[in-house]
Amino acid sequence: MSSSGGSSSGGALADSPSGDVATGVADGPAEGASDGAVVCNAIVNGATAVTSEQIAQNPPTLVGGTIANGTYFLTGLAIYTEPEGPTGAGGTTQTTIQITGTTIQIASSGTPATRTATLAISGIDFTSTDTCPDTMVIQGTYTATTTSLVVQYPGGTDDAGARTVQETFAKQ
Hints:
Layout: E1 30-31, E2 38-39, E3 50-55, E4 70-80, E5 88-93, E6 95-100, E7 103-108, E8 114-122, E9 125-132, E10 137-144, E11 148-158, E12 161-171
Parallel strand pairs: 3-4
Antiparallel strand pairs: 1-2, 3-5, 4-6, 4-12, 6-7, 7-8, 8-9, 9-10, 10-11, 11-12
């Protein structure tokens, strides 16, 4: 679920385009952070920080597949800016996700630090709907293998053109 410039706040599975390890499903929002933030799960963010990279190309086509249950670390974050778009490194982010059926538990370096979402799949398309701490909806496409998950979703448009965010996760 990242920004073209710095770490940011929650998107599809990691950090959003305006700017993802414990077991079990959270029972819902729970107060617990000292700053009053809602804690949605107990996932430990064990992933290494990755730097986002703007790439002046159209994004690759994704092909769907079966998403395996398990814990995944974010290993790549690309923002495709179309052939005439800007290039270069952006900010860093760190995300761990745990998938169990249609539930995704997310721990990230963004805000909020934890999220819980429900995943719906149709062909190569996905819809991720947060159930904690809000009800944000992100739609995109994906490719899944037994060892990885790649997701793409719209990252906004500005004077330089449209953006597509691509997050790559490795199964642990």
